Every structure is written in structure tokens, then in C-alpha cells.
Amino acid sequence: MLKHITKAVLAVFFSSAAVFAASPEDLNVALKKAANDDDLGFTRGSFVAAPIPFKNAMIGAGLALGGGYMFQLDESSDTSILGLGAMRSENGSSAFGLMGNLAFSQNKWQLSVAAGKADLFYDLYLGNLAVPIRQDGHLFNSTLLYGLTDELHVGAGLRYLETTIDYATSGGFPPLPDTDLEMGVLSALAKWDTRDDTFSARTGHLINATLSYGEILNQSDRSYTKASALYTGYQPLGPSNSLAYRAAACRSASDAPFFEKCSLGGTDAFRGFSATRYLDDALLSAQVEFRQDLSSRFSAVAFAGVGLTGPDFDSLFSSPLRSAGGLGLRFQLSKKFKAVFSVDMSVNDEHEDILYIYVGQRF
């Protein structure tokens, strides 16, 4: 959980600020396009800053603040960004960090480096029992991608995490797993992106695949693997409406820490459940969203999804099918770019309703 939230805070101005939510490139691309007409070189950049409200099922409502310096190193490369962000939510969770995204050599190479600290309060589900958890720690994350073509990128990621976990209140709860961890993770990454627009695509697809190997550095002989794949597609239905859909698959080893497990909501941006409600070693999910323009700046969405979690793929279809759906509104933040402010209300099959507030489309 710490990994997802800290990375979201670090990307707060450059991506959607919702924790466990939203496509991770929307505002980043807005900055890139805004800077494309500026002179080239580090000293010819621009400073930017923004507050971003959010609300989600895990840490509640809050405000994220971000600021950065953006510049373009050569004519064909995307805009590079150096920035910082901070977040605080209504339940006392907080995080801050620094981030750098560099694009160079005619956009063939893309380097991202981030470091941050988080102190989080959330409920962890032990079976059907929700127990209050406090997790804090330090995170370093880096990725390096190489463009084989304009649409296909491959690369690697390196992550270091030091975290402690304890109950937020006393109450005679059972012992927690993985209360003190120091870990390193090495990942192989692939991305295939044919979307016509990164903010609110109407055609094309985005495929992200990750294969990770992690080691628990402060425990002897403990390692794990994890693989995930996300396919997101877009289909226009008419001049003012379209469909967006996502399929997700995830498999983690049984030795993975609980916050590295496959998560309905954390792995796939599924709306309707807390990202700590259904954690397991295998996941399959599917989501669809209908998008309808109401005016030049306002639009509405209707969404639904189903998901399965279990100890392995063979047992998934004997597990209970989880489902959720809902309605949402979108407001386009700029006439020039299609980055949106989003408000969604979801209802799940357990008759729970959850409000989400974030920047960007969900996927």
C-alpha cells in the first residue's frame, strides 16, 4: 500500500492525484504539451504548481500539493520535469517526496527517479475483519525505458522500500504479518501505447506489462516474484460518446508481503472496494465505462466491473465474483487539453457505496 500511495504523491502534479486511481500520465502529458513551444535546454524551462483534492476508500478525503520545473532537452523529446509533492488526508495520513522525469536522445530514453516518505493510516482486512493499521516508511523508485518505436517501449525498474507496520490502536488483534521490512525489487517493463489522446482517449489501446523479482533484505532466504498485465482499450460510439474498457491479470508468489499482493482496486484501479479489502496471490478483473459528453467542458460516465481474487488462477473461478458499478461526472480543466476533474459514486455487491474524487480518467 505504501508503494502505491507514495508514488501517487510523488507524481501528484504530473499525474492524477488519486491514491490507487487514475491513469498515471494525464497531467504529465499536459505539462509536456504546454512546454513544447518553449526554447530548448534546461535553463529555458518553466515553474508550475497546483493543489489537487482527492477522496478514496482507503485514506479518505485530502489535499495534495505539487510543484515543479519543466524543460525540454531536445526538439523531439518529451518535456523533462523536476518536482516535489506532499499530501495529507482527513484520517491523518501524510506523504511527501521528490521526483524527476527526464526524456532525452530524441525521446528514445525516458528516465524516472523518485524518493519519498509516507505515514499512512488505513484498514487492513484479515478475513472479514477490518483492523486499523499504521504503516510508515521510505521509498526509492526508478525506471528506465527505451523506445523501440514511437509506440513500443521496454525497460527496467528498481525499487527500494523500508517500512514498518503496526496496529493504529490497541485491541487484542492477531499478530500482523511483515511488521518490519527492508526490500528491493527489480522489474522488467513493457508498454505499448496507440491511444489518440492521453487525457481522454477515444481510440487505440494501452498495454502495460510488469515482471518483478523482490528480495526481503532483512530476512534470510526470502524472495518473491510478481507479474501483472493491464490491457486498456477505447472505442468511439459516436461524435459525443465512447467506451473505455480494461482487463487485468496479476499473479504474485505466496511469499510476497501483503502490500505486494494482487489487489482488486490497487492493481487495476477498480472502483467499489478498498484496495486492502481483496488481496491475494492471483487476480482477474474486467471493467467497462461509457462516456457521454454533456457540453464542451462537462461529461458523464457510467461504469461497471467484475473481479476475482484467489490463491492461484486454478481456484479463481470457484471464488466469489466481486462486482461494482456507478455513475460519475467529469469537468475538463482546460479548453486546450482534455485533462479532467472526476467525481464518481460506486456501489458494490455488498451494498457499500464509495465516493471517489481525483484528477484524470480512471483509465
UniProtKB/TrEMBL annotation:
Recorded hits in Gene3D superfamilies, A to Z, give:
membrane protein fhac: a member of the omp85/tpsb transporter family
What keywords are annotated for this sequence in UniProt?
Answer: Membrane, Signal
One matching Pfam family: Omp85
Q: State whether keyword Signal applies.
A: yes
In this protein, which residues make up the domain named Bacterial surface antigen (D15)? 186-345
Write down the InterPro entries for this protein, in alphabetical order.
Bac_surfAg_D15
Give the record's GO CC terms. Answer: outer membrane
Q: Which domain of life is it from?
A: Bacteria
Q: Does the keyword Signal apply?
A: yes
Q: Where is the signal peptide?
A: 1-21
Q: Could you tell me what this protein is called? A: Surface antigen
